[in-house]
Amino acid sequence: MALFEKAPAKINLSLDVLSKREDGLHNVEMIMTTIDLSDRIELSSIGQDTIKISLESRYVPNDERNLAYRAAALFKRTYGINKGVHIKIEKNIPVSAGLGGGSADAAAVLRGLNRLWGMDIPLQELAALGSKLGADISFCVYGNTAIARGFGEKIETLTSPPPCWVVLAKPDIGVSTRTIFERVSLDTIYHPNTNEVIKALYEKDLYKLCANMGNSLEAITGSLHPEVIQIKQAMKSIGATGVMMSGSGPTVFGLVEHENKAKRVYNGIRGFCDEVYLVRLIG
Ligand code: ATP
Fold it and tell me: What is the pTM of this model?
């Protein structure tokens, strides 16, 4: 038996770093929403009690280091399952991009194994399990639009943003989330107005949303990789309504209300950056 799970990427509509915990992790407040750029996960039962991973990617390991593998191993261990699974990953989300691709895959594996093995485990429990492997996995288990607190594991669902188009531009660099957080200085860090972003969502006001989106990590990643700031400025001047870096970067996204304008921004930004996508919000 085989089944498929979509593993959609996320973008941050806000990312605030609040404080540092004793264990070295940071307390954050992040509003995230889901976009129509997805990996595709196929899960099929196999005879032996093993986890097999197949994927073609220069950037992602296809062994026990893969987050999808680790999610399956954790699921099997937690629920004492002695069955095997073959996980095939079609990787479409850029890697180390700030779009949560690895977390999306891990979350899809948790949801998918729940179905494959007929377990009926509530999403809340899968999200708690996922948080043991990575901060964004809880959000990805639920998808849609939510605010994440704690180190990212406490999820509260929010209403979806007003419909719009998303132009994504990923400069040809990978950014390690850990490296960026290591450079956080809480005395000087910028804090976005998260409450105004939430209000904008509930008022379905794209302009208010764009005016209030903000990311505490943008200046840090931008100082290491100035192309992030250049792409942001270019996207804004070409006509995106709001522009921000997602996660710890380096992907920059622009929100645009109308399709024609979104295509103009998409075509315009291709002159600055090789890897560009035009997608819709599905959160
Ligand atoms: P985050 O902001 O959560 O760090 P990201 O989008 O910046 O996410 P990912 O694409 O999730 O970054 O990749 C981060 C690291 O995880 C990479 O070094 C990659 O090799 C590793 N990794 C492990 N498994 C996967 C997977 N299934 N897909 C993508 N990356 C994976």
Answer: 0.96
Give the start-to-end residue ranges of the domains of the chain: 2-157, 165-280
114 lines ligand 1 (CB under 6 A): no
Please provide the CATH number assigned to the domain covering 165-280: 3.30.70.890
Active site positions, annotated: 10, 136
Tell me, in angstroms, the distance from the centre of ligand 1 to residue 81's CA: 26
Strands 84-90 and 51-55: parallel
With residue 101 as reference, give the H or E element that holds it.
helix 101-116
- Ligand 1 mutation pick, 95, 133, 136, 139, max ligand atoms within 8 A of CB: 95
Q: What fold, for 2-157? A: Ribosomal Protein S5; domain 2 (3.30.230)
pLDDT tens for the chain, 283 residues long, are: 789 999 999 999 999 999 999 999 999 999 999 999 999 999 999 999 999 999 988 889 999 999 999 999 999 999 999 999 999 999 999 999 999 999 999 999 999 999 999 999 999 999 999 999 999 999 999 999 999 999 999 999 999 999 999 999 999 998 899 999 999 999 999 999 999 999 999 999 999 999 999 999 999 999 999 999 999 999 999 999 999 999 999 999 999 999 999 999 999 999 889 899 999 999 8
Measured from the CB, is residue 99 less than 6 Å from ligand 1?
yes
